[in-house]
Amino acid sequence: MIEIKEIHKSFGKNEILKGASIKVNKGEVVVILGPSGSGKTTLLRCINFLEKADEGELTVGDTKINFKDATKSDISKVRRQTAMVFQSYNLFHNKTVIGNVMEGLIIPRKVPKKEAEEISKKLLDKVGLTDKYNFYPSQLSGGQQQRVGIARALAINPEVILFDEPTSALDPELVGEVLSVMKQVAEEGMTMIVVTHEMSFAYNIADKVIFMEGGVVVEEGTPEEVFNNPKEQRTKQFLQKIEH
User: Which residue range or ranges hold the ABC transporter domain (predicted)?
Assistant: First the structure.
């Protein structure tokens, strides 16, 4: 289970998160929707301390932390339980595909190299990259690079995977292959928080949809509730624009 209470984050005088709270149960897929600048990505980055929130509380599994007072030990505990898949892949360009997946096992977790290699191969097979172990990122399509990113996230066996607009940098014909892998991961029971504009994925795969604007949660509910019968006028306006 992961819960965020009353999270605040400012960059200079610009307050991006203004007391947003979300709760995600184990095994749930939660999709966060919202216009550009609504705080979606900042929220994800604060969960695993890529950004440090100014105020609020974070619970991941048995770990409960006040953002403001988080120590290095606290941050390490959270990062051991979370993984992130980035919009821009964030792969090491000087490492092979298998090297990218092994990195998070060998360096921070001290997994023996042979064991790390076996784990990495299984996960690359799982995401459909059996024949790409020794390729470099520059030799892969965007969709293939993003699937390496998903394999890398799975490798550390996290409590939750955070997806930050994982298909927005892809050519349209490559989006499906990444969403297919994400669907498979969701069906296997992985807890996922996904920032995306892929409405069909949100509707068909999510257990809960959250709509954010202006740094707060405006509305949340099941996909059927939010898409078919939104309560808030702002949610309705956003969905109408997306549909058009």
Answer: 2-239
Rounded to the nearest angstrom, the gap between the alpha carbon of residue 21 and the centroid of all alpha carbons in its chain is: 17
- The alpha carbon dihedral of 104, 27, 46, 72 has a sign of negative
pLDDT digits (tens, 9 = 90+) for 200-215: 999 999 999 999 999 9
Is residue 48 within 8 Å of 78, Cβ to Cβ? Answer: yes
pLDDT of residue 42: 98
CATH code for position 30 = 3.40.50.300
Residue 233 lies in a domain: yes
Question: In the predicted model, what is the mean pLDDT of residues 53-66?
Answer: 95
Task: Indicate the number of domains in the chain.
Answer: 1
What distance in Å separates the CA atoms of residue 138 and residue 148, rounded to the nearest whole number? 12
Full residue range of the structural domain in which residue 18 is found: 2-90+162-241
Q: Is residue 79 part of a domain?
A: yes
Strands 29-33 vs 208-213: parallel, antiparallel or unpaired: parallel
Q: Does the pTM of the predicted model rise above 0.90? A: yes
Judge whether 98 lies within some domain.
Answer: no
The edge-to-edge listing of strands for the beta sheet with 63-66 is 14-24, 2-11, 55-60, 63-66
